[in-house]
Structure formats: C-alpha cells, structure tokens
Design a protein that fits this description.
The protein has a domain of about 110 residues: Immunoglobulin-like, CATH 2.60.40. It has no helices and 17 strands. The chain is mainly beta. It comes from Pseudomonas nabeulensis.
Length: about 180
Amino acid sequence: MGARHKSMGVVLFCTVLMAQGVRAENCRVSVSQPHVDYGVIRRPALVERPSVALGTRTVQLNVTCVEASPMALRFIGVPDGQGFRLGRQGRFHLRLSRAQVDGRTVEWEAAQLPGEAVTGQLLPGQTLVARAAGEPVAGQRMVAQVEIDVDLPSYALQVPNETRLEGRGSFELVTPAVPRSR
C-alpha cells in the first residue's frame, strides 16, 4: 500500500507595523500596506536548496509633518544579524529607495557614519538620515519606497502542517536628527 504524500506548506506573513507620532509629535508615519503576505510556500518546489529567497515586496512609506522636521528614520524590530527576525529561523531585510522630501530627491547617510552615503538598507540599531547636497534635510513630507526581502533556510520549511512565520516592527521618525557634521 503506497503512502500518500500531501503537499505541505508554510504560511508566511510578514507584518510591518507603523508607529504613529513616535518621537515626532507633529509628524505621522504610515505605509501603504502595513501587512505583507507571502502566501503559502509548497515544500516540494523547494527541495535541494540550502535557503529560499521569497522575492522582493515593495510598499510606500509616508511621513507627513505639520511643521518642517529633520527626516531621520530607523526600524525597530527583533534584530537578526544584518536583518530582522521572521519566525524562528528566517529573516527579512528592509531597504529605502526613491526617497523624496518635499519633492526633492534625497540620499541616505547612517547617523553612526557621518559623511558616508549608504544604500538605504535599514540595519538593526541604525538610523538613516535624509541628506541633499551633503546636508541633513528637513521638510513636511517624505515619501520613500520600502523594499522587503525575506530569506528562509530550507529546513524551516520542514513542518508537518501549515505554520505561520511572522516578522514585526515599526518605523520611527527620529528627531532631532543626528548632530550636524563638521
């Protein structure tokens, strides 16, 4: 009698929760889609790979302030190396791109590394400061794309039935921004 092999899956649900008005009482932080759902991943399709990248999802981050405010952001989540924890074994990475403050394109600088431009990757414990022409930028409205990438070791998919993996965190607008560089 042959054993029936049922295709099991893992339900991945990466949640990005926004903190409203944290550290910037006159500002509101929001995202276009606060829940990013990666759906059901079927184990047979993933055999023989040491890890699984689930693809990039993109949401829009918006910061709206009553008065002009320095634009410096960090993500508060459970740290896991160069990313944030997703379930027990996975991790997700966040990257800010296409950022504008009051319609002006900005680049990012890590507050911990003044004078050095960075790619926009949000690392645990790191604050990114919006800059233009080498100076910190203040404004009333910021928009940026948040790229979310999820990595799972393939052994995380060895589960007997559907399992929910979750990652949580919040964006925080940090004001005042880091002290001006020399």
